[in-house]
Amino acid sequence: MGVFNAISEQPRGGLYTCAVSLSPTREDLAQALKIPYDPSKTTISTLVLAGTKNDVITPEGMEILYGKLGGPKVMALRDGTDHGQRRYSGDGYVTAWFLYWLQGDEEAGKAFFGEPGELSQNFLWQNVRMDRETQTELCSDA
């Protein structure tokens, strides 16, 4: 919730140019906790990773969240992990995301984009979605 609140509340051309959300919370759960957020306000490149075990977000909830995001985006679910386990299973992809978007590292970008992106071929990850429409332009330095 904190990632989406931070990046959606900044003015245009703000501090954040790309983001990663690990195991985001379903919007209805966030509202029940009185910490609502609105992922539809997201316009920067965003990577969202979660697990397939239903806890703070379900695979269906990830699809809904992903559909609301604007800007370049990638989502994936790590097979057999939950919210707590997810934190330790995607570090390489998180690093590659930031290297690509913040430093223009084309080799790191191959983890997501290209034919085929490495993430989409990794058997440990399911429900991989990639917005290929807006992947060509790199974000400016933070």
Account of the 3D structure:
By secondary structure, the protein is an alpha/beta fold. The protein has a single domain, classed as Alpha/Beta hydrolase fold, catalytic domain (Rossmann fold, 3-Layer(aba) Sandwich). It contains seven helices and four strands; from the N terminus they run αβαβαβααααβ. It has helices spanning 2-8, 27-32, 59-68, 83-86, 91-103, 106-109, 118-121, and strands at residues 18-22, 45-51, 73-78, 125-130. Strands 1-2-3-4 form a four-stranded mixed beta sheet, sandwiched between helices. The two termini are 21 Å apart. The model is unreliable at 134-142 (pLDDT under 50).
Short précis:
The chain has 142 residues and is an alpha/beta fold.
Report the sheet-strand fraction: 15-25%
Strand order, largest beta sheet: 1-2-3-4
Q: What is the fourth-level CATH superfamily?
A: Alpha/Beta hydrolase fold, catalytic domain
Instruction: Give the CATH topology.
Output: Rossmann fold
Sheet/helix structural class: alpha/beta
- Low-confidence stretches are 134-142
